[in-house]
Fold this protein.
Amino acid sequence: MKTKLLSLVLCFFALFSFACVGSAENESNIDRINDQMGVLTEIEETVLAELLEESYQKYDMQVMLITTKSTSYSIYSEDSAFAAAKSQAELFYMNTNGLSSNQNGVVLVYYEFKGYRGLYIAPFGELSDIYTESKTDSVLDDIEDYFKRGSTEPYKGFEKFIFSNEKVWEKRDTPSPLTIVIALGIAMVIAFIIVSSMKAKLKTVKSQPYANEYLKNDSFKLVNSRDIFLYRSITRVKINRNNGSGGSRSSGGSRGGGGRSL
Amino acid sequence: MSEILEYKCPCCGGAIEFNSVVQKMKCPYCDSEFEMDSLKAYDDVLKKESEVEDSAEWDLSNKDAFSEDENINTYVCKSCGGELITESTIVATNCPYCDNPIVLAQRVAGDLKPDYVIPFKLTKEDAKKALREHLKGKHLLPKVFKDENHIDEIKSLYVPFWLFDADVKANARYKASRVRTWSTGDYRYTETTYYSLLREGEMGFERIPVDGSEKMPDDIMESIEPYNFSEAVDFQTAYLAGYLANRYDVSVEDSILRANSRMKNSSEEKLRETTMGYTTVTAERNSIQLSNQNSKYALYPVWILNTTYQGKKYVFAMNGQTGKFVGDLPLDKGAYWRWLIGLFAGLGVVAVGLAKLLAVLF
């Protein structure tokens, strides 16, 4: 009896361990680099994979890199190229790697579709709120030189992206410069109001334009009162209903982020 | 021909004056108090006596010296014999040599006699205390302005006022609008309806005061309103003893405009209050017709202090009956900027801290 009980407990622990290992293996099975264009050497890929793993371990967020030339989208403009790049990022993040759009992560896509070259950042989870237009532009400013035509250092661009993304994550609780300017502006207005009220206390001399205090009690009598209708005017304004066609409030997939053509 | 009235205590012969605390004539030497009515007969006797004496003296001594300037007169103090020179508007003053209170009775006789006087209720100490309170808590006031030495120069003064009564019939025309909004389908509608409002009303005003002294700034005199007229009494010269007093030098005709303006503004405001239920109301025209107009001449009590700071004159005034104190104060520009920068720095730190906290929380 005791032996059977012990066996059961051992089996339970063994199963639990396999499950942990299994999940660890699943996590480590995540493919974070998809170099379809072949711009990275094997060594560069390995180094980048290690950096991406470190980033995941440190911040619990999945950072992925894609280079691609092919798409099923019809490409005829910059915006259609961005849409194609975003779609590739979502497929890779959610379909290929089985991650949810609510899981923290970001995908950098370096694409070349029918003459449209560019970069696209597709954030997921909390990073969707962190990657505002200005933050996205800032990160793209950091890395775009490494991807421009004639550049032979896309690896450095990817490396720079990993570090820039970590900085974005670390500073996520820092208010933006605009917020600080607004806060200081409000402080200035409040300070000015307070000092103005102190200054107003210095002035107590005021002429009395009215004689209300000298009105005889109950002497006021309204003798005549007429309200004459003159005319009426009616205007109308169309109500602007926002259908969310910009995609920023779409459920599922990446939101926030953005792209830049090179 | 002018005359001086100097009120002597029937008990000890000292110079008595009106005491605002007990509201009676009081001798500062023997502490005797006298009702105003009981001194009225004495007042008449004094007038008769002084008529006889003054007519002989003034005729001989002052004719040559002051015939060129009608605004300046000379008097001889009965107590010390000192000669004092006063402007024609001064009604009561103190002898500059022996500080004896003097009332120039002829300047408040006949047509110049006030109908009413509101006696002083508050003392010099009350005025000094009010001035200190007025200067307290003013962080932008230059520190040197709070110098205590100057405070003793505050003086009591009866200021002449014209009091106007009138019944007013007022007419006003307003343009008004009413706004209504609603939404239907994809549109928001705004309907604005315009009206012309006609209002006619009657009301009565009594005892609107208008400052009758050119020297007293009108805005300061209006700032210390209102006075409680129920405490006004029929004029007697005895009330002026111990105080400075001026007679009017702004005629009633010149004062009427100000009274009319105040009545017009008040009647328009009263009619506007009857225009209810509109989004906007704008006055287009208003007029008043007066009837049963009446004017009286009164002396009202004021505590006053004049001072100069950095070449600019500052006047402080306190209502001698109610204690209302007014007076514009100078601005310390250095203090202004220090407070502004200091507050901005402090509030800025708080604001940025709040912004960081919000960024963390949300």
Summary: Chain B touches chain A through 73 residues (CB under 8 Å). The first helix of chain B runs from residue 36 to 61. The radius of gyration of chain B is 28 Å.
